[in-house]
Amino acid sequence: MKLYTPKIKAMPWQEPAGTCTGSPIWRYTENPIIGRNPIDHVARIFNSAVIPYENSFIGVFRGEQNNGIPYIYLGRSKDGIHWEFEEEKITFVDEEGQEFMPRYAYDPRLVKVEDTYYIIWCQDFYGASIGMAKTQDFKTFVRLENPFLPFNRNAVLFPRKVNGNFMMLSRPSDSGHTPFGDIFLSESPDLVYWGKHRHVMGKGKEWWQSLKIGGGAAPIETNEGWLLFYHGVSGTCNGFVYSIGGAILDIDNPSVVKYRCENFLLTPETWYEERGFVPNVCFPCATICDPEDGRIAIYYGAADSYVALAFTRAEEIVTYIKEHSVLTEEDQEPGRR
Ligand code: BMA
After folding, report:
1. CA of 96 to the centre of ligand 1 (A)
2. Which residue, of 137, 161, 213, 268, has the fewest CB within 10 Å?
């Protein structure tokens, strides 16, 4: 099993305390790693993304301010577990360097492609849609054109170009608490013009992902294909339940799903996942991988209130996804036109 991810010096890690039940993913015993009121005027941090940076870690965090408006905050950590946040939200600028803030910003992903870091989030663009910015030094954050028309959420950039183009997953939606949603793929030569839109996968027959799905962490390149941790939602009589699912996409044609696990990999069952501002939410947004030994740390938002960590090993999780793979015809085709 090979992971084609950048070499790292260290990563957050804990061996499983007991045997895993179900999938080979285990939670960090000190979860949640970010608790309530982490910054003076921010009530909750959740659904956030991190990346190794200069021998330590840096991240973009969804901070729900006391007035209820979400913005993105920068955080730094030596170990990927204990985080220090900047007091002020990230200031985005336009190409001329003038301040250019979205009205709100939530669920950021953070992906490095070549020598640039990209932040992709959900914002108001006449309704919920995708915003994007780039940085090389985590001091200046230049906003890019909005990649998609409204309404859209859960955009996830691939960590490298495929067939010469940037690739992005997204989930077209409505402007509210969308009761539907499939994952689509779009390509761009320049991060301005997006096209060649293809369907990747739809909601599943399985109850835990039967309402909608959405991209989670940036896909991880492996010798089996792109390993994708995504979220799957079921609509219960008492509201939505968000679980973590796993799939492997074709390396050269990521709109083709090679394997898709019929079981959830992680579903709300601890107090910090079941209890909070929105109960029963496990929302993956980032991973840190060690290509030397296949360790993977998964960062996920819990109950729209906390950030939590879970761990797995590439070999074990890929084997599990393959052994429990159930594909629909739609999953296997490159997408209708
Ligand atoms: C989705 C997004 C996420 C959130 C989830 C559960 O629509 O808004 O930010 O975690 O709902 O509330």
Report:
1. 33
2. 137
